[in-house]
Amino acid sequence: MTGSSQKCEVLVIGAGPAGLAAAAAAREAGADVICLDLFARPGGQYGMQPASPASRFEAVSQVAEGRAAAARCLELGVKLLTETEVFWAEPGFRVFARQGQEALVIEANQMIVASGAMERPIPFDGWTLPGVMTAGAAQRLIKANGTLPGNSTVLAGSGPFLFAVADTFAKAGLRLRAYVELQGLGSRLLPLFVRHPSRLKEAAGLLRGLRATGASLHRRHVVVEALGGQRLEAVRLAPIGGDGKPQRSRSFTIDGVDSLCIGYGFQPVIDVTSALGAEHRHDTLLGGWRCVADPLTGATSVAGLYAAGETTGIGGAGPARLSGRIAGLGAAAGAGKTARADEIARLARQLADARDFAQGLARLFPFPGHLVDELSPSGTLCRCEDVSRADVEAAIDDGAGDALAVKMWTRAGMGPCQGRICGSSLAELVARRIGVSVAEAGCNRPHMPLRPVPLSIAGAALAQADGGCIR
Ligand SMILES: Cc1cc2nc3c(=O)[nH]c(=O)nc-3n(C[C@H](O)[C@H](O)[C@H](O)COP(=O)(O)OP(=O)(O)OC[C@H]3O[C@@H](n4cnc5c(N)ncnc54)[C@H](O)[C@@H]3O)c2cc1C
Hints:
The protein is of the alpha/beta class.
């Protein structure tokens, strides 16, 4: 197999709201820019593009925004590469990607990582049954592929994203059996919207969407078990007690369920920034481990490397776009182009305001990491390597002192997902068992390859880069 190579002044990884804003800003400042994404169409998660122009989601405002941002990049002369997934990166910068069935090596003077967010699942009994999926997976099935997750669906978890998914269900004309939210909320939302009245219209629209699904509402409840033989058949719910824990003695079952879509919010995607050695910090309000970036330039602790959007902390599409533009101007300046100081100051003010709203929401929906305690000892924690909660706890009791040691001991997090699914819960479990903070329990270390890639493509990338450069 052969590979190809390209060069640019500024490389942007990720074509979501942050990456597209970054690419446009860097190009406007005069830099030669490549922006790549693993998806078939640019737009990222917020601007997720349907596979067919005939989709009823084609006219939705988020989709139109994603389309417009990509069109603007093309008009400016940004080289947009889709279906291109980065599986390794070296400082300097040399980036190794899979483009369809080909290998691609890109050399860039400056680099912006805008790799977005991923969901933050919490394992529970029965979570590996067919029919159980994350809320984001269900949304992608519907929006991008026009496929419904099932005919009798429960949407559960915690956080504002569940409203967005319910709205997607409503737009697809799907009725929901039940909507299960861990928090009570009610009047606690009011002060936030008094401080940010411009967000009320969006929130009201999402609530209307939830109502249109016809779901029965279960506030302060949580899914404790998915039940079924070969696939999902029922869901067991328990109310939350005054101590914040599920009250199993008062649990009940919803029968005749064929799909359970469950989400507890997002965590930053930091595999590329970690591989490049940038500084990361654990921040509970921003989704856990995030890449540290300068608010006025997007610069990370690695020279020439910038980060934007959810990679720098969970905040939604608004902060993603603003931080993307800031990083684009920062990287262009790093490549010797001139950026306008007055624009940067204005963007930084807007970013601080947008982040204030996001953090207010995050305070109302804190990540319920303690729910990992509800998993039975025989319950699966890492499904790639089939590691149970008992396996993990045995390793800790035998002396594994942090998440990395548990990974070495048990192989939890060593499978194809590289800990993206189980890593956060593994750290929670370690922290709770040893009695340290989740930050002290440690984070997943990146290894080559960051993403599953055929050996033939990795080999072709190596040959393209003259061999020997990939550690
Ligand atoms: C599943 C999911 C669904 C969401 N849906 C909504 C929603 O409906 N409404 C809402 O307000 N917010 C939603 N969000 C939150 C969303 O993250 C932000 O609102 C917004 O999209 C963030 O913009 P971003 O540019 O930082 O990241 P993203 O939009 O996530 O863009 C990052 C891009 O980077 C690409 N990427 C990552 N790693 C690589 C790699 N190694 N190689 C190549 N490409 C890579 C990804 O494919 C992605 O397109 C969703 C998040 C997720 C995870």
